[in-house]
Each structure stands twice: as C-alpha cells, then as structure tokens.
Write a structure and sequence with these properties.
Elements: H1 4-19, H2 23-32, H3 37-46, H4 51-62, E1 75-79, H5 82-89, E2 93-101, E3 104-111, E4 114-120, H6 125-137, E5 142-151, E6 161-169, H7 173-179, H8 191-203, E7 208-215, H9 224-232, E8 235-239, H10 242-252, E9 255-265, H11 274-293
Parallel strand pairs: 1-4, 1-5, 5-9, 6-7, 7-8
Antiparallel strand pairs: 2-3, 3-4, 5-8, 6-9
C-alpha cells in the first residue's frame, strides 16, 4: 500500500505538471518537495506527457552554470585561465558575476552596448564539453575560446596567435559517448569567424597562423619527441580542450572559434616572458570582443 504522504505529493506533482507554464516554476516546486525525488521519477515514467519536462529538469540539476537563462548572452567568451578571464572582463562595462559553482566562474557585462558573457571552462575535454553544452542550452550562439598552446612546429614562434582550422584528437571518451558510434567528426570552426578573427589580429600587428592543432588528454606526457611527431604530422600546436568546443558547437548548432596564444615552442625550447604574455593577451582579448559584436 502506498504511503499517503507519497500519494499526496505525487498528486501535487501531477496537477502542477499539467498546468506548468514555465520550467523554472516547475523546478521551484520540485525543489520544495526535494525529500521525495522518487515521486518525480515514477511520475515521469508513468506519464509520457511529462517525460520531456523531466529530462529538461534533469539537465538543469546537472548544470554547471547556475544562472538564470536571461543572464547569459548569446555571445560568449570561454577561457581556461582565471587571470585571462579578468583581462577580458576589464574591457566590459557593468560587469556582474552571474554564476559561481565548483570553481567555474561566469560573468556578464556590456561591450559597445552589447551583452557579453565570459565563462571559465576548466581543464580538459570533459570539462569543456560540460560548459559548452550548458551554454548552448542557455542560448549561447557565438562562442570564442581564448586559450594558450605550445607550438610543435618550428614555423610557429612564441607569441603567435594560432587559429585552428581543425582539431585532431584521440577518439573515444566524450566523442564516443555523444556520437554513440565509431565514426569521427571533422572539428572545424565557423568560417566567417575564422576569417574575421585572422584579419583583425593581423591588422592589429599580431603574427597569426591558421592550421591544425592537436588536443591532448595528458599534459604530463608532452615532451620534445611527442611534439616533433605532432609537427611532422602537420600540426602547428598542442593544447588541452579545443576539440571539445568545436565538437559540441557542431553537434548543437552553435558558431565557434578558438584563438590560442603560443606561450612557447616545445621543439625549439623558446618561450615568452610573463610581460610579453600579458601584452599579447590584451591585444587578443579586445579583438575577440570586437569579433563578437561585429
């Protein structure tokens, strides 16, 4: 026999689901009866009309960005370095922290009268995939990632802005779980964003190279031998997250571009000084913002 309290709460869920006008009201209601999550699950299974709503709720509960949808711009800069995020934010007006959860910081401000959101994406492809999937579900349509990289070709000098025309990556993991198949996807950027980004950075005096970049899963395995092999295979640089951005953006229908500042070269041993990194990151930051609002 059902517990009367269980039955009473299930009835409340049923009535509310049938009359729900928006997902946030429904979420609030369910949180109020959070002691009985099994009610929600059983109700969703028994009543097919609520399965979509339940799926949406499940995604919001798992979300990393804990902000109201209207607080997130459709134009977003994502970064894997909190200091770099501060640099981008310094160009924005009326900056507001809209979310902070598990070390992931999100801010929204204005640039040339348009709303821009900046988000820390963490380290590695799984972290990147979580953030980008979350952002697209909240309305992001143009996403630029500003990251670092290390050159693996002697042609790429430290201080170069590397714009990936494609990412190479290890299959499996995130890619296999999303695709549920063994084929691979060509991970490419939005062409108009790539072209504009290259033109803007060149005009601003930056050395720019467009080409293939390798997204690695294991930073501590990088050595000169590994770098030389990547270079021979046609890569300009190596980094840790970019393939995740192009992958999720392509699957979800968002426009994306990565811009990497080459901090050093793993083949030649050359590297930038801290003050050089700061100066070049400011140039790139402003160009990214100009690209998003053009």
């Amino acid at each position: 026999m059902k517990n009367p309290l269980y039955a009473d709460n299930e009835y409340k869920v049923s009535i509310f689901c049938n009359n729900a006008k928006n997902i946030y009201n429904l979420t609030t209601f369910i949180l109020l009866i959070g002691k009985y999550p099994d009610i929600i699950l059983n109700f969703a299974v028994m009543h097919s009309t609520t399965q979509q709503i339940y799926g949406m709720l499940q995604l919001r509960f798992m979300a990393i960005i804990k902000a109201d949808k209207e607080k997130i711009s459709d134009k977003v800069v994502i970064l894997g370095n909190l200091d770099r995020q501060k640099t981008i934010n310094s160009y924005l007006n009326n900056v507001e922290k809209v979310s902070e959860f598990a070390g992931y910081h999100a801010y929204t401000g204005e640039y040339q009268g348009e709303k821009i959101t900046t988000v820390f994406h963490g380290i590695g492809i799984p972290s990147m995939a979580l953030i980008v999937d979350d952002l697209v579900s909240m309305g992001a349509r143009k996403i630029v990632r500003f990251g670092s990289s290390f050159a693996v070709s002697e042609k790429v000098k430290p201080g170069t802005a590397v714009l990936p025309i494609g990412y190479s990556y290890y299959p499996g993991g995130v890619f296999r779980q999303y695709l549920k198949d063994d084929y691979s996807i060509a991970l490419t950027p939005d062409y108009s964003m790539l072209k504009s980004g290259e033109e803007r950075l060149n005009k601003d005096g930056m050395k720019v190279m467009v080409g293939n970049v390798f997204t690695s899963d294991a930073l501590m395995t990088h050595n000169k031998e590994f770098a030389e092999k990547l270079g021979r295979d046609g890569h300009l640089a190596v980094e840790l997250e970019g393939a995740g951005l192009y992958f999720i953006a392509k699957l979800k229908g968002a426009s994306a571009l990565s811009v990497h500042l080459a901090y050093g070269n793993l083949v030649t041993g050359e590297s930038l000084k801290a003050e050089e990194i700061t100066a070049k990151e400011r140039i790139i930051s402003k160009n990214i913002l100009d690209l998003l609002v053009e």
